[in-house]
Specification:
The protein has a single domain, classed as Beta-lactamase (3-Layer(aba) Sandwich), CATH 3.40.710.10. A hairpin with a 3-residue loop joins β8 and β9. The protein has a five-stranded antiparallel beta sheet with strand order 2-1-10-9-8, with helices on both faces. A three-stranded antiparallel beta sheet has the order 3-7-4. The longest helix is centred in the C-terminal third of the chain and has 17 residues. The termini are close together. The protein is globular. By secondary structure, it is of the alpha+beta class.
């Protein structure tokens, strides 16, 4: 019966891919045990994690800094970014509640200012970004607005906290956690052979199909490293990270304290204002990417390329998706409808 059930689920997922995404990998865990491990369509060893970088890298490092008493979310951001001269709390930036722009095409400004910008060092590109950020002022928002720009400010905070470029501090962290195949592609040079990576968009700006080079234009222009995007990784590493976070919430982690895990995954925005903890998405009523079944205690994140992670500590359920839905074009948005269905189908399988 169990074999029949999983085959039915595999068939359902495979039949749903056409016209939506070239392929995907789905994993689900119940009580820390693997329940679903499905590869459908054309799959690869490594994927562009896109905005999962925000939680796997940036939030992970901030949780570690909190445990080391180097970071306090309730403090003003300018304690960590001294040139940011506003009374905005770090927690407001983490929860996309600071009133900063949602997105700015820094890559276009960089290319206009430096036609040969690819010859610049990562540090020089970082100086350019900082100059741009210094010109921004927060406004009073009516509600939380998901923003990559928020995480550019957190990148500056992290580099001041750790006194090293963000990819260096992440490399130290990932060794602690045991992530074997998750990394930034510094200077947009991939770590493994190109064919190991899921291709993303046929990019009109870069005039090629991207494979092993980060899809996000701003991150690419910065040399492949940022706080909001840039990580490439495997489903195994994403599972390692998610299961360690589960351990932390249960007070069993060697990486983060239970206090840090609970603080960063608990709602900080009123429901009328937005659905955010400190860096993590929370299920939105009537339309969450996590589907219909997860509890109000769930938290997660999505990535533009078709990646996501959702964890529900109350139901002790974790679900991971890696895909390259932007191949060959980001204009295909059908995956937005499929993602919650995938969560529902997998949840129903685990509890039927």
């Amino acid at each position: 019966m169990a074999v029949s059930k999983i085959k039915t689920l595999e068939t359902k997922i495979n039949s749903a891919l056409q016209g939506v995404t070239p392929g995907l990998i789905v994993r689900a865990y119940v009580k820390g045990k693997l329940k679903i491990n499905i590869e459908a369509g054309e799959t690869y060893k490594y994927y562009d994690l896109a905005s999962l970088t925000k939680v796997v890298c940036s939030v992970s490092l901030l949780m570690q800094a909190f445990d080391q008493k180097k970071f306090e979310p309730s403090s003003l951001l300018n304690e960590y970014v001294p040139w940011f001269d506003y009374t905005t709390k770090a927690s407001e930036v983490l929860s996309h509640s600071a009133g900063l722009p949602w997105w700015i095409p820094f890559y276009q400004k960089l290319a206009e200012s430096f036609p040969n910008f690819e010859s610049l060092t990562l540090e020089e590109r970082g100086f350019f970004l900082e100059r741009e950020l210094r010109e921004m002022a927060p406004t009073k928002p009516e509600r939380a607005v998901y923003s990559d720009v928020d995480f550019f400010f957190l990148k500056s905070a992290l580099q001041n906290i750790y006194q090293t470029p963000i990819h260096h501090s992440f490399n130290s962290f990932k060794e602690r956690l045991g992530l074997k195949h998750t990394q930034f592609h510094v200077n947009n040079i991939s770590a493994y052979k190109k064919s190991d990576y899921a291709p993303t968009e046929n990019c009109p700006w870069r005039k090629k199909i991207l494979q092993g080079e980060v899809h996000d234009e701003n991150t690419w222009s910065l040399g492949g490293v940022s706080s909001h995007a840039g990580l490439f990784g495997s489903i195994e590493d994403l599972a390692t990270w998610s299961l360690e976070l589960r351990k932390a919430l249960r007070g069993q982690s060697r990486v983060w304290s239970q206090k840090a895990a609970k603080l960063f995954t608990t709602r900080v925005t009123p429901k009328s204002f937005g659905d955010w903890s400190l860096g993590f998405m929370l299920p939105s009523e009537g339309g969450s990417s996590s589907g219909r079944y997860l509890s109000s205690h769930a938290f997660g994140h999505t990535g533009f390329t078709g990646t996501s992670v959702w964890c529900d500590p109350k139901k002790d359920f974790i679900m991971l998706i890696l895909s390259n839905r932007v191949h060959p074009t980001r204009k295909n948005e059908a995956f937005k409808l499929l993602r919650p269905q995938l969560h529902d189908w997998c949840y129903e399988y685990c509890w039927s």
